């Protein structure tokens, strides 16, 4: 039985992917579940976080968002039994890759998959669903009538966040990074209040948001990264698509919530003073926040269940790439490499 792993070079600059033969899994015991994987989504590998967590290994397992059928359960498992259909996200320290036929995982990382949800929908939406749910419900407390700016709304995360915000009765504004993204966002029903096309770098996000809200500013901002410095000091790739941190502060309304994915965000004293005057809050959206806190497992399972319930009832529909069969052949590794580095499947 083979699984897909990645290996970093000694300089941490180059990553290679290999199919590695795996030994048979040990007998399932205690709170662990043996799972036949039916679908696995691929997302970016945060090598920096792995290094910070001191998780240095020769080979790192690839693929963490999985959906499958329970084959066997340990003696202390209370939530599942053989033949149950489940979905979940493997922990950071998992020894098993999701891109494998069979994995072994603690029951607290799994929930039941609704019957109406396909394998690919479950695995492909679970991570972005948890991120959007965390940002809107736990970090910014979205409610009816609130205005929400969702940056890069046509992304996999953005589309789910827009649909969840609409479900809660919020007014949504979003940015588009290309003409194709703009056309995608304009097809949303219910419609997005305003789609801001930032692809040419000439549109000012702050001005557009203030105009849309009558000068009051937006209540919630979910960014997709921000520029920290002037255009002369930033890498060229960031120049057009990302707003400057000052733009975000300017467009925030009184009592607003800024949820950022910029882990190295730096605020100068004048920036902090402006947030203070507005009574605004700043929160960081960390993909692994639930994974790193063992005391929050109960809350995390509730989020997983609610995400699957909303997917089953049609509250949101994920944006997925075409699934690729997992062939036991080294020839397919380049295909997986592209997917792993640049998107979800």
Explain the overall architecture.
- It is a single chain.
- 28% of the residues lie in helices and 23% in strands.
- The chain has 9 helices and 14 strands.
- The protein has helices at residues 47-52, 119-139, 156-167, 179-186, 205-212, 245-251, 269-278, 297-312, 333-342; strands at residues 2-8, 15-21, 32-41, 60-61, 65-73, 85-89, 102-106, 110-112, 147-150, 171-176, 194-197, 218-222, 252-260, 281-284.
- A 6-stranded parallel beta sheet has the order 11-10-9-12-13-14, with helices on both faces. A 5-stranded antiparallel beta sheet has the order 7-3-5-6-8.
- α2 crosses α3 (156-167) and α2 crosses α8 (297-312).
Features:
345 residues; alpha/beta; Quinone Oxidoreductase, Chain A, domain 1; Rossmann fold; six-stranded parallel beta sheet; five-stranded antiparallel beta sheet; 9 helices; globular; disordered C terminus; GroES-like_sf; CRYZL1; Crystallin zeta like 1
Radius of gyration: 21 Å
Largest sheet: 6 strands, parallel
Elements, N to C (H/E):
EEEHEEEEEHEHEHEHEHEHEHH
Unreliable spans: 328-345
CATH topology heading of the largest domain = Quinone Oxidoreductase, Chain A, domain 1
CATH domain class of the largest domain? Alpha Beta
Structural class: alpha/beta
What's the overall average pLDDT, rounded?
Answer: 83
Percentage of residues assigned to helices: 25-40%
Shape call:
globular
- The fraction of residues in strands falls at 15-25%
State the separation between the terminal residues, measured CA to CA. 22 Å
Number of strands: 14
